[in-house]
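User: My instructor asked us to take a sequence, write out its structure as C-alpha cells, and then describe one feature of it. I'm not sure where to start. Here is the sequence I was given:
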Amino acid sequence: METILCPTDFTACSENAIRYAAALGQPMGARLILYHNIYEPVLMDLAPFGTAPLVEAVQDPVYREGQQQKLEALAEAQRESPFNSGVSVECQLSYGHTLDSMVHTLRKEHVDLLVIGHEGFQEVFGYSLTARIIHEAPCPVLVVPPHASFKYLNRIVFATDLKGESFTDMSLVCQIAKLFNAELQLLHILEEDTFTGRQRAQAGLGLLLKRLPYNKVSTHLEVHPEIEEGIHQFCFQQKADLVVIGHRTKNFWQHLFLQDNTRQIAAQTFLPLLVVHHTL
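Assistant: Let's start with the prediction itself. The C-alpha cells for your sequence are:
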C-alpha cells in the first residue's frame, strides 16, 4: 500500500480523517495526498433542458487561491508533525463534480486506499455521497467516524457474507494485519440459527481460513436477526480496532450501502470501517 488519498472539506471530521490516514501510513512509509475539489458545473448543467448553454461557468480565482492555501496549510501541518515521520505529504486541488473528479484523481494517482471522514461529507455533500463513493471508487475505502483516533491495530474483524472473497480482497486485509501483527477475526452473522445454516457457515469459514496467507486468524459464527447490530455487538465484546466488510454489485450486502447503513455501522461501533471491493 503505497499511496493514500484523503479528501477534505476543511471540517473537523475530515481533518480527523487526515490525522488517521497519516498515522496509518507512517509504518508503511506511504505517500499521502490531501485532496479538495471545488465544485464547478459543466456547461450542460447551466443550460435549460434541451437547449445549448449560453455562458460558461464563472470561476473565482480568489476563492480558488484561498482553498489552495488552506489545503497547503493542512499538508504543512502534517509534514511538521513528529508522529508522521516517513510519510510523504502532498496536496491536490481539482475542479468539477465532486464524485467524478475524485474518482478521476484516484485512477490518475494509482491510489491504493481512500480515507474519508464520514460525518463531514454527509453535512456538506448530502446523505448518499459516502455510499456512492464506496460504489464508484476503484480502490478500498476506509471510513473514519468523527471521534475515532488512530490506535495501534491489535484486532481486526472481517465481517464476511461467505459469498467468495477474492484473493485480492483478502490479501489487502492480510497485508494490513501483518503490518501491525494484528489478530484477524473472520466473522459471519447468521440471521437465523438453523442446523443447515450453521453447518454451511462453519464450512465456509473453514475454507476461507485455509486460503489466507496469514497465521493469526480465528473464525467466529454469531447469530443475530440484525446484521449491523450483530457486527456491532461482536466488535464491542472483542474490543476490535478496525472493521472490514466486502462490497460487490448486487450482493448480500448491497442493501447496507443503498440504505447508507455503512454510516450506521461506523456510528454504532465508533470504529473505522474498511470497505474492500470484490473482484470475482
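For the description part of your assignment, you could build on this observation: The domain at 155-277 is CATH 3.40.50.620 (Rossmann fold). Try explaining in your own words what that tells you about the chain.
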